[in-house]
Amino acid sequence: MLPAYASLPEKAWFWLFRIFNVLVLLFLVSPLFAIVPLSFSADSFLVYPIRAFSLRWYEAFLTDGEWTRALMNSFIVAPAATLIATVLGTLASVGLASREFPAKSLLMGILVSPMVVPVVIVGVGAYLFFAPLGLTGSYLGLVLVHAALGVPFVVITVSATLAGFNTNLIRASASMGAGPLTTFMKVVMPLVAPGIISGALFAFATSFDEVVVTLFLAAPEQMTLPRQMFGGIKENISPAIAAAATILILFSVALLLTLEWLRGRAERMRTRKA
Amino acid sequence: MSESVPMPGALLAADGVPLKARLARQRRLRQLKAVLLVLPLMLFLLLTFLLPIGALLTRSVDNPEVAAVLPQTGRALAGWDGRALPGDDAFLALAQDLARAKEEKTVPELAKRLNMEEPGFRSLLQKTARKMPLAAGEAPKAALLDIDERWGELPYWRAIARNGHTVTPYYLLSALDMQQGADGTPELKAEEERAFLSIFGRTLWMSFWVTVWCLLLGYPLAYWLSQLPARRSNLLMILVLLPFWTSVLVRVAAWIVLLQREGLINSALMALGLTDAPLELAFNRVGVYIAMVHILLPFVILPAYSVMKSIPPSYMRAAISLGDHPFAAFWKIYFPQTVSGVAAGALLVFIMCIGYYITPALLGSPEEQMVSYYVAFYTNVTINWGMAAALGTLLLVATLLLYAVYQRLVGSDKLSLG
């Protein structure tokens, strides 16, 4: 807060700075608030002002075979990719957490690289490599590449959690007679789980938002929701897209709340320890 | 070695083995266990990520057409110096190769490939192949020159000779607006034939400005949030994280709604009387910049925020109490401590920018398309794998170089998300 004795330029600066930042925050959220109401418009165009409200675009979204199939596909591909990325990523992070690991930073660089390599390159490469194997136009091919794209997020979050893990807890547990399995389930898991879950959520969001690889690898039967939206925005942008967008925004709110809850939980556990 | 007689005084484990040896064995076991845990993921990434990228890289130099369809011609031209027309044997080999190609229906792929090298080659080959095979006893050189006098021109023969190998620098050179000159050395193409250098330039230029805007908007906001009490900053942080977690497609759609001619921003500007006619905000560079900055801004804010949170406020207070103006204190004391963290975030934004495809494709005109767009274009539209792969290879090289710098700056084990 501004002290009462602040001079005029100080006051002006203080308020200018605030206004600037509030505008930036507004810039960040305004698109989301702009598109949601349009999904309830009865109009056939995505324009304001909204003259009449209706749920017809949600009805269109939920009864159109293409949209529902895309939604279904997204809910097939994303969980499968998340499962693979999370299991393999967690195992690898546990291995990498060992102090004696050879060439650790190089390996970490490779494991994280799917995050920085442009997706177009991954998409075209996957197409070239998978086509002779018969994996293009299949769910399997799509799931495998989406999983690869999700791996860095799992490795980063789980590694970060493991770095803060006190290995003396394992020794303490063992010294009190717990077997390795009990130690893992009762001591390691509760402390590491938030990292794994948030990594999994990142991996899920990555697959759930992925267009480019899908563009190259998927046949019409494997169209995912973002891919369907990409086609929709490109051809004619209708309020059905606003309905799909609103559903996706609700989805990201749910993801965000879960993550915040996890973060809060981890923080509480840490402060309790201290 | 563990069987050796222990030195007097050496520590022994319970079973009599020297402790040092036991520890070394334990260490190796732990190492093995760690490697075994990482192995499945490495194998998985090899199959789903590294080998596909390898396939792309090899495609950028892959040149099977001429070597496969004109094998005899290739051999006949092996020692040719390219200065005068090749001898009769080369004409004969070409006639024989083309006769076989006509039978095996491989002329079109050859024609497509050679036409890239020398415009007009497609029609020349099709015309010649139609007249194949030559009648018995016909002199091949005279016959070919009779079918089309272009067989008497050197550039066509040079194009064949250049591509006798299954590996070619052609695509990579083309992606850099270069070509092989008459003597085979790379040279820059004529001004009007250049295309890709300006696309690379545009990609870097646009990425640069997006990064600058992200810094200009993100740094002050991160600073403000880091100074607020935890409760309020957490609440406001949600406004940063919510768009961060929202699908890129949703955000692009939303920006189209806001920026189009009949969009909210134009209606607002006109209602306020700031402009009479709607401004062109979408489907041009302004729209692409706005949407890209919106998408990438959290990638600057989040790391900047976490760096700023770790700077004790006492430094600034000390500087001010010693008589520094708050601005000077900020510039001399606070800002230098944030540079490395913020620079890392900015570099990450730049790296992500140069690979952007979706946003320019949906919100830009042809003038805003970046390298990724042309990779997709050559893959999907013209089906020119070599060109797509070459552009992709150069984009990948640029990305990996920047990534190496980033790793230097941050250290890969210190990467964090939000």
Question: What are the salient characteristics of this protein?
Answer:
heterodimer, A: 274 residues, mainly alpha, MetI-like fold, 11 helices, 0% strand, B: 418 residues, 3 domains, two-stranded antiparallel sheet, 1% strand
In short:
The complex is a heterodimer of chains A (274) and B (418). With 274 residues, chain A is an all-alpha fold.
Task: Show the helix and strand layout.
The complex is a heterodimer of chains A (274) and B (418).
Chain A: H1 8-38, H2 56-63, H3 65-97, H4 104-112, H5 119-130, H6 139-163, H7 168-175, H8 180-208, H9 212-217, H10 225-235, H11 239-273
Helix pairs in contact in A: 1-11, 2-11, 3-6, 3-8, 3-10, 6-8, 7-8, 8-11
Chain B: H1 19-59, H2 64-69, H3 71-76, H4 88-104, H5 107-117, H6 121-130, H7 140-147, H8 154-162, H9 170-175, E1 178-180, E2 186-188, H10 196-227, H11 230-245, H12 248-259, H13 264-271, H14 285-309, H15 314-321, H16 326-354, H17 358-363, H18 371-380, H19 385-410
Antiparallel strand pairs in B: 1-2
Helix pairs in contact in B: 1-19, 4-6, 5-6, 10-14, 10-16, 11-14, 12-14, 14-16, 15-16, 16-19, 18-19
